[in-house]
Amino acid sequence: MTPGDLTDLGTPGRKHISYAAGWKLKEDAWSPGENESVFLGVDFDRELQSFPAWLVAKILVGTGDVPEFVTAPDADSTGTAELCVGLRKYGSLGRTEPFASAGVAWLTGGITGYKEETADAFSIGEESTLGVWADVGIQVPVTRSFTLGFIAHHSVGSEVQIEGSGLELGGTSLLFTLGVRR
């Protein structure tokens, strides 16, 4: 079999896990900080036997700077996390595997503080909400076991109150992936 020949990968029950790194776009809902550029995650999917879609679960976390509206003097950073579960449908385009996914998400956003005198980190505010997510992406098999890919991910949650300001959790992220399949 050559690296581009994917004809033997159709066995039911295949699994794929990707490690993702990317950026959260600033014009979206959860943009309290000047820079939430670090967004990391794990994306796992598994083929369902006798079903046209794959089950997908992903965890994404991001960190960033403190927003202007936070008045706490020791505020140090912001963070978001998303736990997403849903379905994914793969296609085929030459050697590439485009896909689309959607599902439900548990979205969390928070602001942390840090006291230099005592070297203690503490929570200034944190809220969570249920939301929805969708993404599109593409995987390129490098070998039979390894893939490289790109995902455009979007999530939406309801408004939460942190430090007296209403913020919508979620947003759009661009992620590059390195995956392993069995």
Walk me through the structure:
With 182 residues, the chain is an all-beta fold. The chain has strands at residues 15-24, 38-47, 54-64, 75-90, 97-115, 120-141, 146-162, 165-181. A hairpin with a 4-residue loop joins strand 6 and strand 7 (146-162). The relative contact order is 0.24.
Q: With helices defined by DSSP (H or I, 4 residues minimum), what is the helix count?
A: 0
Q: Can you give the helix content as a percent range?
A: under 10%
Overall number of strands: 8
In what range is the share of β-strand residues? over 45%
| Derived structural class | mainly beta
The rounded distance between the terminal residues' Cα atoms is 16 Å
Strand arrangement, largest sheet?
A: 1-2-3-4-5-6-7-8
Bulk shape: elongated
Radius of gyration, in Å, reads 19 Å
Question: What is the residue-mean pLDDT, rounded to a whole number?
Answer: 82
Main β sheet profile: 8 strands, antiparallel, barrel
- Low-confidence runs: 1-11
Written as H for each helix and E for each strand, in order along the chain, the element string is: EEEEEEEE
